[in-house]
Design a protein that fits this description.
Layout: H1 2-17, E1 19-22, E2 25-28, E3 39-42, E4 45-48, H2 49-58, E5 66-70, E6 83-87, H3 95-105
Antiparallel strand pairs: 1-2, 3-4, 5-6
Helix pairs in contact: 1-2
Length: 106
């Protein structure tokens, strides 16, 4: 358990070292993947930077069947206030439709 916390702390340090504030967004400045999402490398594994930021901020794992999405629609944004969970099956809908569904569910 202690070893896992240390690994996560190393990942958080990497996250902090590789971001810059631009307007209301906190943008990942590390190398993006082929789809434009930030990827963080720590503890011999890659993870999406925005997913890592959401998990770090909430202290929870991402539930099965959900993904972390950016409200600002910026794929490099890791600002925890811009991140929310959305069901995978709703993710491909347009932003306006998805937001309306998310608001109804909460």
């Amino acid at each position: 358990m202690k070893k896992e916390r240390l690994k996560r702390a190393e990942g958080y340090a990497t996250l902090q070292e590789n971001c810059v504030r631009k307007g209301m967004c906190l943008l990942w400045t590390g190398r993006p993947d082929e789809y434009g999402y930030g990827k963080i490398y720590y503890s011999d594994t890659y993870e999406y930077a925005h997913e890592f930021a959401w998990c770090w901020d909430t202290g929870k794992p991402i539930p099965e069947g959900y993904i972390v999405h950016q409200k600002c629609e910026n794929d490099l944004c890791i600002n925890p206030s811009h991140l929310y969970l959305v069901r995978e099956d709703l993710h491909l809908q347009s932003g306006e439709d998805r937001e309306g569904i998310e608001l109804q569910q909460t």
